[in-house]
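User: Before I run my own analysis I want an independent prediction to cross-check against. Here's the chain; please return only the structure tokens and, at the end, one sentence I can use as a sanity check.
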Amino acid sequence: MAPPPLAIEVSQLRVVRQHSVILKSLSFTVAAGELVGLLGPSGSGKSTLMRSLLGVQTITSGSALALGDKVGTPALRRRIGYMAQSSAIYLDLTVRENLAYFAGVLGVDISQVEHTMHIVNLHSFAGRLVSSLSGGERSRVSLAVALLGAPPLLILDEPTVGLDPVLRRDLWQTFAQLAGDGTTVLVSSHVMDEAARCGRLLLLREGNLLFDDTPAQLLARTRMDSYDEAFVRLIEEAS
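Assistant: Structure tokens:
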């Protein structure tokens, strides 16, 4: 059986911003349909890497491809779904109105609104103003916007930050289901216990890629019982 095509290809990626090196020659690939966790402490370079993959961050050197095209190519705009840390939805519109608006912006058939609400279990909130929703419910609306048009690649920047454990679990189940259906999902987090929910991990620290393998291999390699302890051991090994 032929291996799945590559959804992301990064080679010697380096980003320098205001004379500071943010990403230090990163190289990795992500296959189609993988659920990959991009983990590391705040300031490790996760958001910069995601912005680079979206084509909105200037790359100093190296290369990055998404879905076979150079990042930033106009053809990729509707093929990558993105959920930022900060909400990009309108508080004075209902959930359904938000989705209908963004469907129009993206040129997506209006039927996608109901479909995406079904995926993230939003139908019971469809007629409510976003301003009346909790933070977790707003996160689900933002995820639904990212899913409009069924993009083959999802880039989600800290989608579970600040959420209660039940909602975090539900969102990770959604991510796993999307990956199982063939969508490539790259999820960033600074919460190390979320590592176990990923099929593969990319661990960043100070712009360096410390680890690229499965959660089980991380624990086996470091001989640790927890992911927090394993990450500390990796840091010690790299020092």
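Sanity check: Residues 41 and 190 are 5 Å apart (CA to CA).
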